Amino acid sequence: MKKVLFGLAIAATSLVSATANAAEGDVHFKGELQGLKDSLIVFSPGPDGEYKRDTVLTPNGKFDFTINVKEPCGISCYTPGTLRRAENVGFQTIAVPGETAELSGDLSKSYYFSGSKFYQQYNEADRTMEVVNKPMQDLINNLNTRMAAGESQETLMKEYQEKSGALKETMIAGLMDFIKQHPDYEASAAIIPSLEDIDKMKEAVALLSPAVRDGRMKVYYQHIIDQMTERAQAEQEAAKKQASGVDAPDFTLNDINGKPLALSSLRGKYVVLDFWGSWCGWCIKGIPEMKNYYTKYKGKFEILGVDCNDTEAKWKEAVKKYELPWLHVYNPRGSKVLADYGIQGFPTKIVVGPDGKIVKTIVGEDPAFYTFLDETFGK
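Request: output the structure for the sequence above.
Response:
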């Protein structure tokens, strides 16, 4: 199954290689995959909880290496070109201590697992995931192609929202059916996080046989469930803080010239709080349209860029590089502004009305933000 590769936010270094004498916690990976060139970068959890980065040679797509992990965990393997964002080649899987995984196939199409009993079962689960995910992946591929051809992002987003719900339900049903049919497979426990829904994940756990449910895979799926539960709670709290009609918490931060600027000093006009950072790809991608709308409705609203998770130097450099004409303040680490507004991701745009109350919150680079501006100021 070809996996979609997302963001890479893992660091550290070390060296990995195949070992003749297996130690406790060793997981052996070997095989031959079309699409590989000369090397893979393997990211896996280290003993200190941080991810380590290992380099594996893959001449002619062949590899043979061992990693050591204390418990079942996810690992990611990418080509150096993928880390440079020059290509999209690699795979993600689970590493289970004491097991051997053999991989074959084509990374651009489908690849397969064999080896020890766990990975034979995992291959069955992976094949199921490939089948049930295909309709959703076909939709995404179609929308991406049409976007590249110039079709409206807002139109495509609307189509995705209309169709993706039913496709996701079909996908979940397919995975649940596999787990029902294979309650004794540890691989059934391994695919539970793919359900991406806390209630469904808990339902799937209940379908497992006691030996699997309470066995070595429990630490793997339970960790994901706990993380998602915490995230859901944080999002609920954020929704309360960002709800329409809530008083926008006042704050004072230094502007681009080092002078204090208070949000309350802008009372009486519409203000868009743009929580962003120079490191945020989607933030940067949205700048041209932001500038267009700032000009289109000049004088009808103000933008206050709140830079987050940057050094002051990188912040100032980005403001200059992208020629951002609106107001800017720097939010230093340790500030409580992000917590006060319940910021969960970047970019987040919070529209504050002339009365100082929140009017609307938009998370991500969403065309709905510009629709809101047109509806509010284009009358």
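The longest strand covers residues 26-34.
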